Amino acid sequence: MEMMQLVKLWALTLCLVVVLPLAQATDVSYCDKKTEYGVKVSGVEITPYPVARGQPATFSIAATTGEPITGGKLVIEVSYFGWHIHSETHDLCTETSCPVSEGDFVVSHSQVLPGFTPPGSYSLKMKMYNTSNKELTCIGFDFSIGFAASVSES
Predict the structure, then answer these.
(1) Nearest alpha-carbon partner for 73 in 59, 93, 58
(2) 22-148 sits in which CATH class?
(3) Number of H helices, E strands in the chain
(4) Are 53 and 114 within 8 A, CB to CB?
């Protein structure tokens, strides 16, 4: 009987290891800790986690603003083991509903990373600007791209 309980415990542990990493809340830090940004970021959720090569990944950023935002842009910079490898700019209104009312809102960006993307640790820096090009926030966070190849690459 003891062996059977051990097998069940092992099976449960395996299921948790496979299922729990599908999404992860990620710690964020502000680019300049002395700056009082107009947009406060409370967290980032990455789905799936770790990010799978060749599959869509969604970065959802929970934030709060003290004043309405009519539009602007997001500038995203990605580094791999400290080396800058990619930059892109997006219209803020394609990543969230504009105008953004005073209070809580979510910026959600989805992207498919190429199948040849190297696995490992990445850092992302995101700056948000309003229509007058005033920086509203600047955050950074780390994420991982898994070592397993996606199903479509098999």
Answers:
(1) 93
(2) mainly beta
(3) 2, 9
(4) yes
The Cα–Cα gap between 87 and 118 comes to 17
The encoded tokens of residue 141 equal 């966070």
Give ∠ CA 24-26-30 in degrees, rounded to 5. 165
Burial (CB < 10 A; 0-12, 13-18, 19+), residue 69, is: buried
Full-model pTM: 0.77
Domain boundaries, the chain: 22-148
CA dihedral 17, 22, 25, 27 (to 10 degrees): 70
- Assigned token pair, 18: 């496979």
Per residue in 24-62, pLDDT (tens digit) is 567 899 999 999 999 999 999 999 988 888 888 999 999
